[in-house]
Amino acid sequence: MPCLNEAETVETCVRKALTCMREHDIDGEVVIADNGSTDGSQQLARDAGARVVHVEEKGYGNALIGGIRAARGRYVIMGDADDSYDFTALLPFVEQLRDGADLVMGNRFKGGIAPGAMPPLHRYLGNPVLSFVGRLFFPSAIGDFHCGLRGFRRDSILRLGLQTGGMEFASEMVVKSTLQGLDVREVPTTLSPDGRSRPPHLRSWRDGWRHLRFLLLYSPRWLFFLPGLALMVLGVVAGTALAFGPVWIGELAFDVDTLVGASAAVVIGFQAVLFALFTKVYAAEEGFLPEDRRIKRLVDVITLERGLVAGGLLALAGLAGLVASLVHWQVRSFGELDPRESLRLVVPSATALIMSLQTVFAALFISILGIRRTKETPIDVAASAAEEAAEQVSKETAAEAAVEAAGETAVETAGESAPAKA
């Protein structure tokens, strides 16, 4: 249980959890991950039978990961120390874990939310919307992404390398478990009004934004690729239509001004698609996201040489368009031009030149990202340690042999000189 000034409720929570374990013959402990309480919560928790560990780095996520690392059990069940969750009803979580689940989420919407337990903003907007976004962005069936009561295999969660220190830790655990293919399940749980007289630590808009920001950053497809692709398609369709003349829709006329906007949409969309590719490659290389076979195949196809060729072809097309625009100007005796005619040549040509440079730079950058660093595996570490140990033994053996040889020489010398002294 993460704890920050929970003197009013922490003792009750600890006693409920210990009672549940005794009743169901569960060999376990209650760990309080204290995040700097100043109201005596630590001693109250100890008196109730908990083990208290101090987590210096502030934040909900930091407190939880500190408690998870300190836990001694095979399975861990985490829950807030505000008495809003029923710690006497933990058996469904334990049963699912014993059945092979890696992560078992509570679902408050299925189990029941008592009147006054959840603000209307969270119940009808925040949690449903963020949970929907999580299911949309990631292949997850979890209905309550932010339930604070959940159980998991300790080793499975530690292998995920969770990093967020705030409230978004709850989303990170679900997202990374899903992306890594862990067995994630859900059980109904209840939510009651917490037993504290002070306001909760949660800040609705700030923490809601942090959850949404995390979901976006971990899904380059929705953050970059799909919006960028939509912009590109819109820009190409509009630009192609306008390149041959104005387009009328009813009484509205779309002309070269719209063509400039279409060109901007193509460039921005193409840049966004490239960012999606950069993000996926970098995240896979650094271990933030699992490797995507489609991205790997695409990177194998988009070699530096092919990128340079594609960029060169786009540059040639752009230059050809600019030459055509110069010819058009020459025909007009290098005098004043009608923008409605000249821009239909210049804008597509400039767009092609911009995209040519983007393509070349993207190919170079992807090639840099694709340079794999030598990573030392556990086998390499063990082999290196064995070699060092063998080398040390060899040195010690040589030293001992040298000492023995020196001793024998000294004895022989003493034996030869003994008669003379006599």
Automatic annotation (TrEMBL):
Organism expressing this protein natively: Spongiactinospora rosea
Membrane-spanning ranges: 222-249, 261-283, 304-329, 349-371
Entry similarity comment: Belongs to the glycosyltransferase 2 family.
Keyword Membrane: yes
Annotated protein name in UniProt: Glycosyltransferase family 2 protein
Low-salt glycan biosynthesis hexosyltransferase Agl6 C-terminal transmembrane region domain residues: 277-370
Pfam family, one: Glycos_transf_2
Single GO MF descriptor: transferase activity
Keywords associated with the record: Membrane, Transferase, Transmembrane, Transmembrane helix
Domain Glycosyltransferase 2-like, residue spans: 1-157
